[in-house]
Structures are given as C-alpha cells and as structure tokens.
Amino acid sequence: MATGQQLSFPLDDAQSILRNEKECDLDRRELNLRKEQDALKDRRIANLEKELELAKQEIILKDRIGEIKDMEVLATRRALTDMMQVADRAIKLVETSKPSSNWQLLGIAGGIAVIIGYLLAK
Asked: How far apart are CA 83 and CA 77, in angstroms?
C-alpha cells in the first residue's frame, strides 16, 4: 500500500469491523482472566495437596508419640513389678536377718518407698 492512500469502507462495514474488534478485545481479556483463574486454582490445589501431605505426616507422628507413651507406660509397669519383687525380697531378708533396731528396718523400707514413688511419678 502506498502511503497517502486511504481505505474506505461503507459505514456499516466499518461499524461491524469496530464491533468485531471490541468483541475480540473482550474475548482476549476474558481468556486472560480465565488463564489467571486457572493458575490460581492450580496453586490452590498444589497448596491443598501439600496440606494433605503434612496432615498425613502429623497423624503418623502422633501415632508414633502414642506408641512411645504406651511403651513408656509398659516399661514403668514392668519396673514397678520388678521393684515390688525387690521390695518383697528386701522385707524377707530384713525379717530373717533380724536387724538390731527398728530404725534399720524403717530405713530400708523408706528407701524402697522412695524408689517406688519415683517410678510412679514418671
């Protein structure tokens, strides 16, 4: 095309072209907005997936903590059972050896009571 030449369209055609151009511009804007919405949705989905994975890990850790507490309770019960047996043996030994005073018997019994109390406090 040479410069200086003008294209001429009938008025109806020019209005139609302008209308089409405006519609195309609106369609492009809408398409861009939809792309942005899709990107936001993708990020939200990724974040939700991460949250779900973290929640699963949290549940696993809580289960493990529960298992450890159960093991601790079991160990304490075993220790108490063992301490009761030790206390029974100590009392039998004290009874058979006939200590020279009641203070010795009270001292042994008190020591055993302190140990059992310590184990129960855990």
From this structure: 10
**Is residue 121 a contact partner of residue 81, using CB atoms and an 8 Å limit?**
no
How far apart (Å, rounded) are the C-alpha atoms in residues 39 and 1?
43
Task: Give the percent of the chain with pLDDT over 90.
Answer: 35
For helices 11-97 and 102-121, give the axis angle rounded to 10 degrees.
170
The range of the structural domain enclosing residue 67 comes to 11-121
Provide the domain count of the chain.
Answer: 1
Q: Each residue of 36-66: pLDDT tens digit? A: 999 999 999 999 999 999 999 999 999 999 9
> What residues contact 102, with CB distance under 8 A and at least 6 apart?
none
